[in-house]
Structures are given as structure tokens and as C-alpha cells.
Inverse folding.
């Protein structure tokens, strides 16, 4: 009987009292178990098993126990802790999987089981599934709610950047910031962005920057890569640190097509690290241009207003109401002039009248003048001593000297006698 | 209270400019608005210029203590 079981049968002592036939096929329990184990492990090592997961148990030891089944059969399986920690997605009942590992026998119970060291969901990548599972879970918890998302500061004073200091991302981010708004403070928190512990480092950096009160926005990201490369940004620990951050966070992971859990939790997703640089600071030159334009318009309005006011003032100054006082004065002056002129005329007229009257009187006076009488041959006699005309002889006596005034000359004479008339 | 942020100030400035441009204010009001507009303009300018360019990197010593150093991309890349 060329059976593999028989091949391992060694050093068997024949048992007494049993037929030789039986003796030849005699094993102890341990022997049979070991034999089965060796045989199975030899035949079923490094195999893949297709089946549906059921009855998953995860005790605190970290090992995962499960049953694989199909329509007709069941297979016990275990994922030891080390392998379990490498499984990105969560094993759930009903899931169709391909399990890689080896069959072994658990001798104390005489059970064979599949030791799984790698497990893949059927029809979908493990990472893809892990992503979907975590996304669903965190979505249910509200980690992606837009209500939780914080607005980014318009002009940050200090920016925290969580990324690799040697990667392409930091170069891109710094270049863009420098081009748009150079005078800003930046603190780089260097982290591993892929591989072992990358997720923990990223989460710690985000938490650490939150204790810096000056920082008012954080960029967390890395350049492009495979889904495995970007995986840290799909880890729950990173998602939770982003959600807990009181400082707004811009995620900047890979390229536009790479959407990570971090992108979904972040307050703002930049499609690339370069875009993060654009989102984090505004273009200073445009802002300056804008405020300078406003300033120019302010000045223009003011000077316009001043010019209008001045024009209005001039218009009011020229108005009839404002000019009336001068008009009145002018009218008064005119009237005054007129009156003065009339007064002048009157006076002149009166003077003339008087003058005419006077010359009439003078004519009459002239006709009455004694000189005219003298011309007709009469004479006026006066004492020599005065020019008083003599009208009678009372005061005259012989020897008095008298003056006889004729028309053209006079005669001085002495009285010879006085004769009464 | 914190100073109004840049965006708020910018909006305020724009409103003042628009009010002035409607030309419905008195000369006194115009002067007052102009003055507050210029004040906000100066604030905006200061906001844009107040921060200094500074790029530091946080480094961890082997003792676990952290310290800051000026970040030099070239130097880091060469290492």
C-alpha cells in the first residue's frame, strides 16, 4: 500500500497479540496527527483558496479566526496577528475572498486549518475595498460633513506644511507660494509620506501643529504615486487627526485622479500640491492693484465733489439774489446823482432869475441917478467939507465955502450973501 | 476684538467708493467718507505687508526634543 501515511511510519515496535496485518497499520494518535500534518502541509503549502467568509472572530490577541465556505464545505482558517495587521480592509462575513497561505493541522484538537498570510477580496483590489470600507464608516460618522469644514483664512500669517522635506510636493508648494505671496511665514513639519509609520507620523504632525497658536492653515500632502504609495493618506488615524484639527487643513495628495480619505475629511482639497499653494495664499499683486484702484476712485470722487461744489458756489454767487444788494446800491447812487443834477439845475435857474431881476433894477436905478439930472443942467451943491447935498439955506452964511457939482466937473465957490427965497 | 480681516475691509472700502460715486452726499459727508476710505486702504496695505518671509523646518533631535531651522531646499535635497 504505497500510501504517504505509511512512509512516515518509523520505528514501530510490533504489538503483541495482534495479527501482523493490524500491526503493520498501527499508529499512535500523535503519530497519525503528525503524519496527517506533514502530509497536508507538504501538499497544501502556499496555496490560494477561494471562498466566502463567515463567522469572523477577532479576540484581543490580535489573531483573526474565520471560516471559509462554499456551497458544500467549510474550512477553518486563522490569520495570525502579524499578517492581520497588514490587511488594510476589514474582514466581514459574506465577503468573497481569495486567501493565500498553507494548510496546517492543529494537533491538540486534531483539526486542520488554513493559516492565512494574505487575503484579497474577489473582483476588487484590497486597497480599493479598504478605501470603500473606511469611506463608508467615516461618512456615517460625519467626518466628511460640509458643516464641519472650516473656512480657509484669506491671508494666512503662518502656514504649516506636513510633507516630506525631500519630495516634489514641498518644492511645488513653496514655489507657488513664493510667486503669489512671498512674505508669509512657513513651518515645515517633515514626515514620512509612505511606508511603515507614515500614517502615524502624518497624524502626529497635524496634531503637533495644532499646538502652535500662530499657525492658521495647514497643508498636508505629497506628490503623485501608486495607490500603495499614497496609502498613508487613506489611513483612519490620519483622517481622525484631520477631523480633530482646529486649524483648517488643505489636503494635497498626488494628482487630480487620486482621491484619498484625507481629501474627503480635509477642509479643502487641492487637486495637486501646486494647487495647494494657490489655495493657501491669494495673489498679492492683484490685491494691491485692487486697493490702489479703490484709492484712485476715492480720490477721483472727492475731487469731483469739490469741483462740483465750487461750480455751485460760483453759480450761486452769480445769481440775482446774491447780486441784489449791489443793484440797490447802484440804484441809490443813480438816484442820488439824478437828484444832485436836478438840484444843480434849480440853483442855476434861481441864480439866473435873481441876476436878471437885479439887472432890471439896476436899469431903473440908473434912470433915477442924479448924474442924469446934472446932464440936463442941474447942479448939486454940497459944503466943501462933506458931500452932503444942500437942500435949504438955513445953515449957510456969508463966507462959507461950497462945492457946486456939475455934469462934468465942479466949482468951488464962496458965498457972497444968503438970500431967503 | 480682532481687527476686521482683509476681505471685510476690502468690502467696506468698495462700499465707501460706491457711496461716494453715487454723488448723493454732502461735501462734509464726502470728506468724512473719503477719510475713512483712506484709513481702510492703509489698513489693507498694512495687512498685505505686515508678515515677513520666513521658512523654517521642525527638526527632532535624537533626544526627542524639537528645534527649528531655516529651511533650505537645496541643502535638504542634496542630503
Amino acid at each position: 500500500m504505497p500510501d504517504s501515511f505509511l512512509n512516515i511510519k518509523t520505528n514501530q515496535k510490533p504489538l503483541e497479540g495482534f495479527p501482523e496485518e493490524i500491526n503493520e497499520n498501527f499508529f499512535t494518535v500523535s503519530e497519525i496527527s503528525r503524519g496527517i500534518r506533514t502530509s497536508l502541509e507538504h501538499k497544501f503549502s502556499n496555496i490560494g483558496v477561494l471562498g466566502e467568509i463567515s463567522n469572523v472572530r477577532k479576540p484581543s490577541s490580535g489573531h483573526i479566526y474565520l471560516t471559509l465556505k462554499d456551497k458544500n464545505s467549510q474550512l477553518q482558517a486563522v490569520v495570525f496577528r502579524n499578517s492581520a495587521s497588514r490587511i488594510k480592509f476589514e474582514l466581514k462575513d459574506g465577503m468573497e475572498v481569495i486567501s493565500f497561505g498553507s494548510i496546517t493541522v492543529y494537533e491538540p484538537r486534531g483539526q486542520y486549518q488554513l493559516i492565512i498570510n494574505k487575503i484579497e477580496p474577489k473582483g476588487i483590489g484590497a486597497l480599493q475595498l479598504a478605501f470603500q470600507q473606511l469611506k463608508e464608516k467615516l461618512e456615517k460618522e460625519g467626518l466628511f460633513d460640509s458643516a464641519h469644514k472650516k473656512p480657509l483664512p484669506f491671508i494666512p500669517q503662518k502656514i504649516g506644511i506636513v510633507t516630506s522635506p525631500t519630495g516634489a510636493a514641498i518644492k511645488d508648494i513653496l514655489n507657488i507660494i513664493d510667486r503669489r505671496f512671498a512674505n508669509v511665514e512657513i513651518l515645515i513639519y517633515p514626515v514620512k509620506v509612505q511606508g511603515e509609520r507614515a500614517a502615524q507620523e502624518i497624524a502626529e504632525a497635524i496634531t503637533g501643529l495644532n499646538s502652535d497658536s500662530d499657525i492658521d492653515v495647514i497643508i498636508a500632502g505629497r506628490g503623485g504615486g501608486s495607490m500603495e504609495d499614497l496609502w498613508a493618506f487613506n489611513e483612519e488615524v490620519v483622517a481622525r487627526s484631520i477631523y480633530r484639527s482646529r486649524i483648517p487643513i488643505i489636503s494635497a495628495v498626488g494628482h487630480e485622479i487620486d482621491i484619498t480619505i484625507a481629501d474627503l475629511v480635509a477642509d479643502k482639497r487641492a487637486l495637486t500640491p501646486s494647487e495647494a499653494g494657490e489655495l493657501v495664499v491669494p495673489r498679492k499683486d492683484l490685491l494691491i492693484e485692487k486697493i490702489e484702484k479703490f484709492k484712485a476712485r476715492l480720490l477721483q470722487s472727492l475731487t469731483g465733489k469739490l469741483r462740483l461744489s465750487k461750480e455751485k458756489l460760483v453759480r450761486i454767487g452769480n445769481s440775482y439774489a446774491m447780486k441784489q444788494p449791489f443793484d440797490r446800491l447802484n440804484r441809490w447812487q443813480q438816484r442820488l446823482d439824478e437828484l444832485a443834477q436836478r438840484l444843480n439845475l434849480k440853483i442855476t435857474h434861481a441864480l439866473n432869475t435873481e441876476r436878471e431881476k437885479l439887472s432890471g433894477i439896476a436899469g431903473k436905478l440908473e434912470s433915477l441917478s442924479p448924474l442924469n439930472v446934472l446932464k440936463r443942467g442941474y447942479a448939486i451943491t454940497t459944503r466943501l467939507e462933506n458931500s452932503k447935498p444942500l437942500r435949504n439955506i438955513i445953515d449957510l452964511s456969508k463966507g462959507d465955502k461950497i462945492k457946486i457939482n456939475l455934469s462934468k466937473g465942479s466949482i468951488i465957490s464962496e458965498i457972497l450973501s444968503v438970500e431967503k427965497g | 476684538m480682532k481687527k476686521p480681516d482683509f476681505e471685510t475691509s476690502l468690502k467696506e472700502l468698495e462700499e465707501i467708493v460706491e457711496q461716494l460715486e453715487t454723488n448723493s452726499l454732502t461735501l462734509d459727508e464726502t470728506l468724512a467718507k473719503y477719510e475713512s476710505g483712506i484709513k481702510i486702504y492703509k489698513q489693507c496695505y498694512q495687512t498685505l505687508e505686515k508678515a515677513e518671509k520666513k521658512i523654517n523646518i521642525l527638526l527632532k533631535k535624537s533626544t526627542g526634543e524639537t528645534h527649528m531651522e531655516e529651511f533650505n531646499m537645496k541643502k535638504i535635497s542634496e542630503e
Observations:
- Chain A has four domains: 4-124, 131-282, 286-318, 373-414.
